[in-house]
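Thread: pyridoxal-5'-phosphate complex, take 2
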Amino acid sequence: MKLETLAIHAGRSTDPTTGAVTAPLHMSTTFERAGDGSFPSGFGYIREANPNRNAFETCIASLEGGSAAIAFSSGMAAIAAVIEAHSDLGRPRVILPADIYFGVRSLVAKTDIGRNFDTAIVDLTDLDQLRATLADGGASLVWVETPSNPLITVIDIAAVSEIAHEASALVAVDNTWGTPILQRPFELGADIVIHSATKYVGGHSDTMLGVVVIGSEAVELSAALRAIQNHKGSVPSPFDCWMALRGVQTLPQRMVAHCANAQAIAEALAEHASVETVLYPGLTNDPGHDVAKRQMSGFGGMLSFIVAGGVAAAMEVAGRLQLVTRATSLGGTHTLIEHRASIEGPDSMAPPGLLRMSVGLEHPDDIIADLMNALAA
Ligand SMILES: *Cc1c(COP(=O)(O)O)cnc(C)c1O
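Output below.
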């Protein structure tokens, strides 16, 4: 079945006891045993498994085309679990891309993940750098985030996967920004896919959870991830899973609209004299354009732009916006903007004049009018 159909039907069926078309929300923490001590429903205790989480996991595994999905309480919990789980595979060294969600850099810098694993930071748009790093010390896992945060760089998943596999490293793709609608990491050779479902999958800025999807080549990781999910216990609530399943039904249509709006806004910003650079792979002169055109079916809903005049000018532009909301996070219906360097704090590597936008689902003319007004003053 096609993605539009799976988004609505995968993992779900009409409720057999009530006929409810929308799956009921089961908040029960525990499930009754039969007289012989068995669990006839297959469920025993909420942390081990529960109906809403199972449905969410089945749906996301199906949308990504993976063999299994394991849900966590946040995208970060999912990312931490993957790094921990892969260490069973020996030589635990992780290659991280140069531009990456700030939380992953903090995870490595500030928690036991950083103490327990060697990491190397590589510009994955430069495949020779990847080859050289793998030749010098190897790696067990190559982490890909594309398009990346906040510089919107595009990494060639197929090329990275080929090089990583020659060196016996697994490839994990954070597909939060690509979504299974625009970008198909397993078809490009990746072994593991991660989502912050807090973003586009949920899609309405009102629920937090994460998920790891395992491809057919990495099934040995499933048991380790299940063990981390159950024993470390960073699990999403049934309500979060139910909300994400509600949101994901419109993901295919939302992504088309996010891409169209972002393209229109990127083109309008690129014309403006106060904008130094627009970072968006949908622009034909963007360095990531050619790879994105090959590996994505749309250029995504995220863009960044660099305002002439540095921090002060960028903050003033953001401060004058009336419709666009100044807030972090992404992937919801509202257009959000943030000055990335001040959100990330003193360790930030974001250019000082950079504003990152999560383009929402308002009419693009209204968003453009707000931006032009803010840039004009
Ligand atoms: C938000 C985000 C995360 C972290 O997800 P949380 O659900 O906030 O923990 C990881 N990767 C990317 C690309 C993100 O945008």
